Amino acid sequence: MPFTSVRGTKVHYEVDGDGPGLALVHGTGGDAEKVFGNVVPYFADTHRVIRPNFSGSGLTEDDGSELTVELIAEQVAAAVEAAADGPVDLLGFSLGAVAAAAVAATRPELVRGLVLAGGWAHSTGPRDAFYFETWRRLLDTDRDLFKRFSALTGFSAATLDAFGHEGLAASQADAWPPAGIGRQIDLGARVDIRDLLPAITAPTLVVGFGGDAMIPMEGSRQLHLGIAGSRLAEVPGEGHMDWFADPAGLAGLTRAFLSERR
Asked: 212, 220, 224, 230: which one is catalytic?
């Protein structure tokens, strides 16, 4: 079970496969296994797949203080440096996309290519501020309602119906969310990486989900407009977390993007 250290934190990460490095970065409330465990088989036959856990997730340890984009980006970078020989392709999802973009901007020598899925550039708008505030208040007052709200905004209606009554009941009974999610939500509410985006020089694919009610498609447009030469792919009708149930679509977009540059 590998660990590395940076800025007084003990960073846990997972490694699978061999070949060119590919780092997968989870989002708020996720971890290396819950978000990307079923993605590894799509890449481990051709890549060394690195899955870091930033603060608040997995076995990563820190002092419990307020999170910053700079800290989680440094944790991702430290795991990449510990596990890979040379630059990697970097796929970040949601808050992990924010971290991945920050790594690409501040540590360009580590990033060969960049995929940002379901991400955003800033949380300063009224809707986003309102969303994160509501999410945090639900976490603090009623965890059952928090989980229901997360499901209703994280998945599309079609995916929730596909889960069925029993599947939805099982999701409510799951031990999620982790103890560190509150700090991650607070960081999400403070995100503003607009000044970093012009510094990104790695080839970049931005993937947005057209039916996303958690991090709306506008967030991906923000990233695309801020990163020179980036490409924007919209997945129509998909919710923020729909791909958890079937990662083939996101994996396919990523594999195609990686193969173009070989």
From this structure: 212
Element (H, E) at 103: helix 95-106
Active site residue 230: no
Among left, alpha and beta (phi > 0; psi -120 to 50; other), residue 57 is: beta
**CA atoms of 75 and 52, how far apart (whole Å):** 8
Could you tell me if residue 253 is inside a domain? Answer: yes
Cα dihedral: 170, 217, 52, 85 (round 10): 140
Query: Tell me, what's the pLDDT at 262?
Result: 66
| Catalytic entry in 94, 150, 220, 230 | 94
Identify the band that residue 260 occupies on the pLDDT scale cut at 50, 70 and 90: confident
Whether 94 is catalytic: yes
Range of 25's domain?
3-121+193-260
Residue 122: active-site member: no
Q: 3-state DSSP call for residue 239?
A: coil
In the predicted structure, residue 166 carries a pLDDT above the cut 70: yes
Put simply, whether the predicted model's pTM sits higher than 0.90 gets the answer yes
Helix, strand, coil percentages (3-state) for the chain, rounded to 5, are 45, 20, 35
Q: Domain count of the chain?
A: 1
Q: Cα torsion at 235, 77, 122, 160 (round to 10°)?
A: 40
Q: Say which of 12, 26, 224, 240 is annotated catalytic.
A: 240
Residue 197 lies in a domain: yes
Q: What is the CATH number of the domain that holds 200?
A: 3.40.50.1820
Give residues with Cβ within 8 angstroms of 232, minimum separation 6: 206, 208, 220, 221, 224
**Cα angle at 36 between 117 and 13, to 5 degrees?**
110
Cβ neighbours for 73, distance < 8 A, ≥ 6 positions apart: 99, 102, 103, 106, 107
